[in-house]
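hey can u run this one w/ glutathione bound, need the structure tokens asap thx
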Amino acid sequence: MIDLYYYTSPNVRKVLIALEELELEYQIRWTDISGGEQFSPEYLQINPNGKVPAIVDHDGPDGRPLALFESGAILLYLAEKTGKLLPADPIERWDAVAWTVWQVANHGPIAGQSTHFHKYAPAMGINDEYATGRYLNEIRRLYGVLDTRLADRDYIAGEFSIADVATYPWTRVAKGQGVDIEGEFPHVAAWTQRVGERPSTKVRVSDPREAKASKNEYTAEQFQTLFRPPDTTGNPTIDSPEPAVAGGNQ
Ligand SMILES: N[C@@H](CCC(=O)N[C@@H](CS)C(=O)NCC(=O)O)C(=O)O
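ok here u go:
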């Protein structure tokens, strides 16, 4: 049995899709990141970085329990555990790993920031033209890279793999990133539709909190917990350290 530490989010959906594809037994451990549950001492034992997803595989290597964080590491682990979702041929396999790392190191983080400045911050009355433009330019560049890749193949690494599993949950919500996939990146749009037809991508979490969380509407307090913007009241925070004493450098 695998525990999936879950909240409605693209990074967690990657793991949900993989578990469904691989037909592994799992249970949802609801983790309310808008209420700060990712920072509880118990959860930090599982993910010291205080984010979802994380898993605990109670039947891990040699039957020992394994706690794992970072969606990319989890996908690689599940692929290794089952011998599925990665090509058998080493050259193709490393290609699939490279595209998986591309997603977790480039596409995912930039899509997240683009969503923040395009959607979440404006909903709180915060409009930052520089940040919005910077992340939108970079996410559009990344979709261009993916579009070129998908021009002559059905899946990112030839056969359906964890590279597709990692990327799909973010392309399906590209609108929130400020990107018009259908209009600008036809190969990405066709691939998103193709992957979205797989039953694994249609699974719904039955927890009653899911519907509310899916709306992505946050109170000011939840917004602060989740996004931790710099404190504008003048109190020192990690983002705005105490100003140096005038004439400082002593
Ligand atoms: N690199 C991490 C990113 C995880 C991540 O950013 N998770 C978000 C949800 S998509 C989260 O837990 N946010 C809560 C917070 O930042 O406090 C991964 O791929 O697993």
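Residues 139 and 145 are 10 Å apart (CA to CA). anyway lmk if its weird
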